[in-house]
Amino acid sequence: MSPSKHSWPEGYSTHVVPVIRGEFLVSDDPDVVLSTVLGSCVSVCLFDPNFGIGGMNHYLLADASEGEATSLKYGANAMELLINNMLKRGASRARLQAKVFGGSRMSGRFADIGPRNVEFALRYLAAEEFPVVGRDLGGAEARRVNFHPATGKARVVHVTGTVEPAIAAPPPPRPSARPTPAGGVTLF
């Protein structure tokens, strides 16, 4: 997977790397931004603020059916692989912090998938004693999430009028320290 390169307004460049459904990525590169689009799916972004490393997963369903427990589309496996890969690269379990995004009710027929994904993520993080320091969960809209793993900063844009989100990684604006009220953008 090759990242797309975008120039940010301040003259430095960053690599936007998409995290698609059923994947996870870990990075300590200060020029990398992980990006995904979520509907009923959930992304958990973990980071070690002292070591400057973080990662993002994107899982589709909270619970695995028999025989599919090792698939990354399920929450438990997506979480274990994200955590283990971060620890292998030097993160400290005691310092890991989480930001959680997604879990919308995208359609009537599958309306319970998003809330179940959210409940799983929050229950899992509580059991592992990882503090949730940011969240944007639920609702009925898709959202685009950009996560800077080296700093733990995240940006969320709500995508209105969507039924099923498409994966896209447009160039993100430079993150600021405070939320932007217009346009459904929230910074964490």
What topology emerges from the helices and strands here?
Layout: E1 4-7, E2 13-18, E3 24-27, E4 32-38, E5 42-48, E6 53-57, H1 75-88, E7 97-102, H2 113-127, E8 132-137, E9 142-148, E10 153-159, E11 185-187
Parallel strand pairs: 2-4, 7-8
Antiparallel strand pairs: 1-2, 3-6, 4-9, 5-6, 5-7, 9-10, 10-11
List the keywords.
188 residues, 60s Ribosomal Protein L30, Chain: A, 33% strand, globular, Chemorcpt_Glu_NH3ase_CheD, CheD-like_sf
Number of extended strands: 11
CATH class division = Alpha Beta
Overall domain count: 1
Find the CATH topology.
60s Ribosomal Protein L30, Chain: A
**Largest pleated sheet:** 6 strands, mixed
What does this protein look like?
This protein is of the alpha+beta class. Helices cover 15% and strands 33% of the residues. A 6-stranded mixed beta sheet has the order 1-2-4-9-10-11, with no helix packed on it. Mean pLDDT is 80; it is low at 1-12 and 162-182.
Short description:
By secondary structure, the chain is an alpha+beta fold.
